[in-house]
Amino acid sequence: MRKLKITELNRISAEEFKETEKIPLVVVLDNIRSLNNVGSVFRTSDAFLVEAIYLCGITATPPNPEIHKTALGAEHSVTWQYFEDTVKAVEKLQENNYTVFAIEQVENSVMLDDLQLDSDKKYAIVMGNEVKGVQQAVVDACNGCIEIPQYGTKHSLNVAVTTGIVIWDFFKQLHP
């Protein structure tokens, strides 16, 4: 096997990305403190054609050299918006007919491997702070919660890793 050269990857430009059909998914970052995590979410969102990212509360916004370090330019291709209040971001999404899920360990959460999406609907996922998770007021505002099953001694994952896992699952179900 031979590794492919960057010129063989057929990458599209940021302008072409903006014109490409996206999966009906918005990622909401609720008070994410690590700029590396924010950048990583941009990069994963670019890779899997996420519609937009909502940056909320203390979550940093582009342009920012620390975000760029991990986003590698995806902050220029993926549409994003800033909201001071995450609950208001959730409410705006719901007003626009999005089903909003917090990714959080809660009573009656749906396990990600049991989740069945409807390709005719629009979705948003709320990712929580690295220490405190998704705020309870935000959980209360969501339509439901999704949990990633975990089987080891730890019961939490890095927010960028979690976002990647969930985006991939949504992509597999929603991409035509």
TrEMBL record:
Segments forming domain tRNA/rRNA methyltransferase SpoU type: 25-167
GO biological process: methylation; RNA processing
One Pfam family linked to the record: SpoU_methylase
Protein source organism: Dysgonomonas alginatilytica
Signal sequence coordinates: none
GO cellular component: cytosol
Name under which the protein is recorded: SpoU rRNA methylase family protein
GO molecular function, one term: RNA binding
UniProt entry keywords in alphabetical sequence: Methyltransferase, Transferase
CDD domains, per database record: SpoU-like (cd18097)
